[in-house]
Amino acid sequence: MSINRREFLGRLGVLGAGAAAATVPAGKALAAHGETDADPMGVLVDIPTCIGCRKCEYACQEAAGFAPPPIETFEDKKPFEQYRRPRPDSYTVVNRFENPASEERPIHSKVNCLHCIDPACASACLVGAFHKEPTGAVVYDAWKCMGCRYCMVACPFQIPTYEYQKPLTPQVRKCNFCAPRIAKEGGVPACVAICPVDCMTYGRRSELLSLAREKIAASPDVYVDHVYGEHEVGGTSWMYLSSVPFEDIKFHAMGSGAPPILTETVQHAIFKHWVPPIVWAGILATAMWMTRPREDSTTEDKTADPSRAHGNDHRPAKSSRLEVESVGAGASS
């Protein structure tokens, strides 16, 4: 029996789909980052309250061990002239936007990792360098990292950065929610602690959501009716209130589905307990068997050309012809 290429690919696809279905638990995603607290810690950022002092930038750099310049230098407003993103040496930055309601009071917005409830960076990491702590912080283990930077591609908020300037010892960098600091000393994240106007509130996520709804209900003329991070990408630990639509201050519009849900069920079940690799090896072996040379096709070739079947095409070899010519020349002489 012989099959053409289309039939072969069709059969291989059926075998592969069957193997994947057999190894993926129905209705269950296998998260790479393990279990987390049902009600993790988080931060609610009241954007209309922020005054743009940038003290949070200083506190963040100091807590991360970056040796920032004197705190007075952060009073410089020149950085507001361009939109900024977190860098390897600065996990959070504050940007300024025009306020349509008041020219004298611009809008200031803090940018940092939102610490997703179901983080795409942890899901994409092949070696577990990113993982989510039970408290809600998404942290990074540099010694595990192999530098693939899949986390940077996977993050829907484009937060992780990379130390390209360190070719020998580069790391992925982002806000770690002050997890080491809080685990050792307790308290709150450094940026929250230093804020002079208390525009950030640290607490349980459920309590922060209740607080956010209370603020919106009490001041509907101040806040848009949207808590950013409540549902975006499955929910985040950092959530925001704003006086203008979030798209106007460069917050990405996101759906409510967590990206890992779309990939983890297959991605992580595929290699569970090494069973699927064995299945796939069987599929490849089957493919080789299905496409091997057939005996009947060899027999047909031999019947069609008997001379080739015996390894003799009845044509004199070049060397034999030369020998005959040499013998003839000797006889004539």
- SS-derived structural category: alpha+beta
Count of individual helical segments: 12
User: Major sheet, described briefly?
Assistant: 3 strands, mixed
Poorly predicted runs of 5 or more residues: 12-32, 317-333
Please compute the radius of gyration using only Cα atoms: 33 Å
Task: Indicate the mean pLDDT.
Answer: 82
Helix content: 25-40%
State which percent range the strand residues make up.
Answer: 5-15%
DSSP, total strands: 9
Order of helices and strands: HEHEEHEEHEEHHEHEHHHHH
Keywords:
12 helices; two-stranded antiparallel ribbon; globular; three-stranded mixed sheet; 333 residues; alpha+beta; disordered C terminus
Please describe what this structure looks like.
The protein is α+β, with helices and mostly antiparallel strands. It is built from 12 helices and 9 strands. The protein has a 3-stranded mixed sheet, covered by helices on one side. The protein has a two-stranded antiparallel ribbon with strand order 2-3. Strand 4 and strand 5 form a beta hairpin. It is globular, with a radius of gyration of 33 Å. It starts with a helix and ends with a helix. Residues 12-32 and 317-333 have low confidence and may be disordered.
